[in-house]
Amino acid sequence: xxRQISIHTAYEGTIxxxxxxxxxxxxxxxxxxxxxxxxHTQGWRAYGSPSQEGGYFIALQHPxxxxxxxxxxxxxxxxRLQLDDLLDFAGDDGLVM
Length: 97
Fold this sequence. Notes:
Elements: E1 5-9, E2 15-19, E3 25-30, H1 32-42, E4 45-49, E5 56-60, E6 79-81, H2 83-90
Antiparallel strand pairs: 1-2, 2-3, 3-5, 4-5, 4-6
């Protein structure tokens, strides 16, 4: 049985992925500073796709994986990122607190 995930567009084009059954957030998508702050505070895993223009990043609660989400990563696929990677992409914007 596949997991059903609902999508909610939120603040400045960010996206929240929720488990459709219990309504709990399992992931977020958005710009690097937003995702960096989530993995910094929540300890979730971060992923990025070099095929997405301008950089598109997701944070997922373990044990979820990017392939569960209805997002096309492009031909490069998803790559696991660390906080420092995201901060490099965020530049002067840094963490959102």
